[in-house]
């Protein structure tokens, strides 16, 4: 039989939000909770068909004048005009001056895609800015439309857990000519953090100064405050600036018409005379995508919006949904406070709309999934999925997750993949290695100060006159060491990259990088970890830590110290070659950016337990030397010596001043040579 033409087709990674729903539906656990999908639920956790929608559908079913003929290419006229009226208000000048027109689309996503196609093909835009973080589909929509440059502007501030207005404006001011920006009109997804009216004014000013074309994504009108007018404030404000503007509307959430795909693209122009040309190009663009929009959902929305009584009923039902979501926000935060969950959870209440950006790390999310609480790996949850019956269970699971894995993911980095997309191992390695001095090696450069006792076999390199004053080359030397520690193979996640070029890193090479033979349990664990790859070279958020050995850690260093505690100054410049063994949790790809960014902003040190095998001892050794010598070594012959190590990690991420971030090693040093310990002389 001839080869199938589809033989080389590979599976794409699952769409995370729908994968969570699938796992939820398959789960038989009685406590299961779905916090992934962005759809409203009742207090019983059930979908809600708005009563006004049922009323409109019944009226439509009894209307014998309706048929199933094609709609105009631009969509149902009654729907389009009513959608614009709800968005801007019937007396807004863009309506009274005939400077706006709507185009029916397949939901909010369809409105975004229509905008992207028009901007790329007709207006020749090629650069789009999206918030960091943003809704996971924004990048994909514009990339598929042909945009070659998809940039990010700062949005989430991990320190204040609010809007990073200064960073946002700085990034937009750096935008090249012919750039456009997607702004979340209300209820930012996924953070739930919106700009204030004063902040919106500053954002609009920057966009006008830089001539950045604005596309407002308005998917949650009514869901944030419960008021249609209040939630449309940003859209109306921008339209008042007399600029050209797009607004993508969705009626999925506020009408509960998720599967009817009802959206509208509002096009605002400074010159109403250009609307016929704009309309013609929009219709040609629609023609080659979906050709003609669907009728049923648009007819429901039009029926409600154009009937005064129905419209008032609808506004009341929006308030019902919004109020329940606000109530569940407070109940979740109150339960976390009652449990004494580590951290400040006020941001859950301060955020608005359907979603909350909890700050849970991927490891904490993994724990939540093990408890059958289904949510996105970014830490985003749908508050609509909480009910009076499950909120205590969810809070309990969050409390357990935070206590088990205490680091919060409060600093999503601009370099992270789109929401729900796993990070390729090779991409992770490349990002980290490109930031080091030598791009071919996994080098961690560390400017350090070690305050303690060091046993240096390199004392022979010191001037002979100074050596004559030393009791022994095996004497203790009180030092402050300042220099750059470098290691070509310090392993932080179980995959040493010693002498391995970036382009050579692959899934298959992971096992070969682990010290040990085929029977080594670390190799078996790594083989098991490989099974978590969702596609070749792509690792899920689960990352295990392994013990990895380096026998040649080169340490260019400069010593200024007193020898033998006798106040005799001496200097040593050279390179120590130290056999070392690191064992601990150091920094993992799932927490590196978050941990270090959080530490930098809080000006706090990270604490990393380690074991170190080599020729370094601490001042505390003097008072416990005999105790150590008389004690039993562990099964590997290690004798532990307490040590504190303070320094700065550089080359992976830096603080705002370009300095390495402070790091504290608080753990033990270990040596296997007990005879060497007993033979030491000096203080």
TrEMBL record:
Residues 31-396 form the Aminotransferase class I/classII large domain. In eukaryotes there are cytoplasmic, mitochondrial and chloroplastic isozymes. Coiled coil: none annotated. Its EC number is 2.6.1.1. The keyword ATP-binding does not apply. It comes from Elysia crispata. It comes from the Eukaryota. This is Aspartate aminotransferase. GO terms for biological process: aspartate biosynthetic process.
């Amino acid at each position: 039989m001839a080869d199938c033409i589809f033989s080389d087709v590979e599976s794409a990674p699952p769409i995370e939000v729908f994968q969570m729903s699938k796992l939820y539906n398959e789960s038989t656990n009685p406590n299961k909770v779905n916090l992934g999908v962005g759809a409203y639920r009742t207090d019983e956790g059930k979908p809600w068909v708005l009563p006004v929608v049922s009323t409109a559908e019944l009226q439509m079913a009894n209307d014998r004048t309706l048929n199933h003929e094609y709609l105009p290419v631009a969509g149902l006229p009654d729907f389009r005009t009513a959608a614009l009226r709800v968005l801007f208000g019937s007396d807004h000048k863009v309506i009274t001056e005939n400077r706006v027109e709507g185009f029916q689309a397949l939901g909010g996503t369809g409105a975004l895609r229509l905008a992207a196609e028009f901007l790329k093909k007709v207006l020749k835009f090629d650069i789009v800015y999206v918030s960091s973080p943003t809704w996971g589909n924004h990048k994909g929509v514009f990339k598929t439309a042909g945009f070659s440059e998809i940039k990010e502007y700062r949005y989430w501030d991990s320190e204040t857990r609010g809007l990073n207005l200064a960073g946002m404006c700085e990034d937009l001011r750096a935008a090249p000519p012919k750039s456009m920006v997607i702004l979340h009109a209300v209820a930012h997804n996924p953070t739930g953090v919106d700009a204030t009216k004063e902040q919106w004014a500053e954002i609009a000013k920057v966009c006008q100064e830089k001539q950045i074309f604005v596309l407002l994504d308005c998917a949650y009108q009514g869901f944030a405050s419960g008021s249609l007018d209040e939630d449309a404030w940003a859209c109306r404000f921008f339209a008042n600036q007399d600029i050209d503007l797009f607004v993508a509307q969705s009626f999925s959430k506020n009408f509960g018409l998720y599967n009817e795909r009802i959206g509208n693209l509002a096009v605002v122009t400074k010159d109403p005379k250009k609307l016929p040309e704009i309309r013609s190009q929009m219709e040609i663009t629609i023609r080659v995508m979906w050709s003609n929009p669907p009728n049923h959902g648009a007819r429901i929305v039009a029926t409600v919006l154009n009937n005064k009584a129905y419209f008032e009923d609808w506004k009341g039902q929006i308030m019902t949904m919004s109020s329940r979501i606000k109530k569940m926000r407070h109940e979740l935060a109150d339960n976390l406070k009652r449990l004494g969950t580590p951290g400040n959870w006020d941001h859950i209440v301060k955020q608005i709309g359907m979603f909350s950006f909890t700050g849970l790390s991927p490891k904490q999310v993994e724990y939540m999934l093990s408890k059958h609480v289904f949510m996105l790996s970014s830490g985003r949850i749908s508050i609509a999925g909480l009910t009076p019956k499950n909120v205590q269970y969810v809070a309990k699971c969050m409390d357990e997750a935070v206590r088990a894995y205490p680091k919060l993911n409060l600093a999503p980095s601009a370099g992270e993949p789109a929401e729900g997309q796993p990070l390729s191992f090779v991409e992770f390695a490349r990002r980290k290695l490109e930031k080091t001095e030598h791009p071919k090696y996994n080098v961690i450069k560390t400017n350090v100060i070690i305050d303690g006792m060091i046993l240096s076999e390199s004392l022979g390199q010191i001037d002979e006159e100074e050596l004559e004053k030393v009791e022994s080359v095996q004497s203790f030397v009180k030092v402050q060491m300042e220099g750059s520690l470098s290691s070509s193979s310090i392993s932080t996640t179980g995959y040493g990259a010693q002498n391995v070029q970036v382009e050579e890193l692959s899934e298959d090479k992971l096992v070969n990088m682990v010290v040990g033979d085929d029977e080594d349990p670390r190799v078996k664990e790594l083989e098991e970890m490989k099974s978590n790859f969702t596609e070749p070279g792509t690792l899920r958020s689960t990352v295990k830590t392994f013990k990895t050995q380096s026998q040649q850690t080169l340490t260019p260093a400069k010593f200024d110290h007193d020898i033998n505690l006798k106040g005799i100054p001496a200097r040593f410049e050279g390179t120590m070659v130290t056999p070392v063994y690191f064992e601990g949790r150091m920094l993992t790809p799932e927490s590196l950016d978050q941990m270090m960014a959080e530490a930098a902003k809080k000006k706090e040190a990270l604490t990393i337990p380690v074991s170190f095998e080599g020729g370094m001892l601490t001042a505390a050794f003097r008072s416990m030397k005999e105790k150590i010598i008389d004690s039993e070594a562990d099964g590997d012959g290690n004798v532990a010596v307490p040590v504190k190590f303070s320094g700065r990690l550089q080359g992976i991420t830096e603080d705002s001043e370009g300095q390495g971030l402070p790091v504290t090693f608080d753990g033990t040093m270990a040596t296997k040579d007990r005879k060497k310990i007993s033979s030491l002389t000096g203080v």
